[in-house]
Amino acid sequence: MNYLNSSYFFDFNHDIIQGILKESLADGHSNREKAITLYTLVRDGWKYDPYHISLSKENYRSSIIAQKPTGNCVEKSILLISLLRGARIPARLHLGKVKNHIAVERLTQKFGSNELTPHGMVNALLDDTWLKMSPTFNKSLCEKFNVPPLEFDGENDSFLQKYNNSGNLFMEYTEDYGHFEDVPLHFMRRNIEEHYPHIFKAIEGKTEFKL
Predict the structure, then answer these.
(1) Do the Cβ atoms of 21 and 86 come closer than 8 Å?
(2) Is 58 left (phi over 0), alpha (psi -120 to 50) or beta?
(3) The domain that contains 43 carries what CATH number?
(4) Could you give the number of structural domains in the chain?
(5) What mean pLDDT, rounded, does the chain reach?
(6) Rounded to an integer, what distance in angstroms lies between the CA atom of residue 69 and that of residue 184?
(7) Alpha helices (H) along 116-209
């Protein structure tokens, strides 16, 4: 497998992605420094919105995601992977299921559960080590819910905010679906249909859907 490849989804040769890379990265920076910069950029540059869902192939292209002000966990992960690959840093998509324990009322109302799936994060290869990172929750959202924002130092995993600042359980991973070289849209469709049949029926045939 080659985790540096461009693809339909990770279209980092697109002018929009290349423009972001040019504006964000300085010459002479190490891969570690580039990864930290791009992680922070995606974490805070696109606000997290779990209530916008799409099954349209086009909407999972990094160049399309980059033009929107918000993104869900998978969309933000796709964008970060595309940027990392464009910076010649191997990266891949990692999916799982998570359970939220804070501010779950709206989640439960919309999804019928406080579990979110598929939940996306990123694996990046730095100094011969695959590191996990999750750019999902932007800093302003974390401040709103009294949760420390996830920082990435380029040396350690940074993918789970288990507790908030008060020591209360915030989030936990309940299933790990593994990593993928490209975006597994068929798997994601089946996953949504299995866990949220009411949402799947509402989305099907639509380009985008807002819960």
Answers:
(1) yes
(2) alpha
(3) 3.10.620
(4) 1
(5) 93
(6) 24
(7) 139-144, 185-195, 197-203
